[in-house]
Amino acid sequence: MTDDDRVGPPLLGGERETLRAFLDYHRATLAMKCRGLSDEELRQQSMPPSTLSLLGLVRHMAEVERAWFRRVFEDNDAPMVWSDRIDFQAAYDASASTRAEAFAAWEAEVGNSRRIEEAAGSLDLTGHQPRWGEDVSLRMVMVHVLLEYGRHNGHADFLREGVDGTVGA
Hints:
This protein is mainly α. The protein has five helices and two strands; from the N terminus they run ααααββα. It is 54% helix and 5% strand. The longest helix is centred in the C-terminal third of the chain and has 27 residues. The protein starts with 14 loop residues before the first helix and ends in a 5-residue tail after the last helix.
């Protein structure tokens, strides 16, 4: 895993540009952690009883993107990607999943998130977070999703190391 083609966030820039760039950087980081691995390697779990795997993280982040962009700003009742109820843990079990399936769902949700963010007139746009029963701003959503990626990319470092002995960026 030596090819790092991620574009880093700007050292100087406005709030929205910086948040967008950091999100894209972390999205690219997750993809980079999975690069070059077979479906079997992507499904390799950390250690029992955990079902966490790199592919499970990709599936989970598809859920996060949907829950925080689409469900907040477009359709509070949009179904989850991997479960028929609000269960973010269901995505972690990627034992029957493939790279093609997981990445197609994740990339579709990232595309929806980008579209929603770009169409918003301001970071002050509010939407309704149905799980909390409260309104939240686009700014808060972007920060929350950025923190989710940061946390899970840390997990991805250890998962990747378990597969091939490398430590991530």
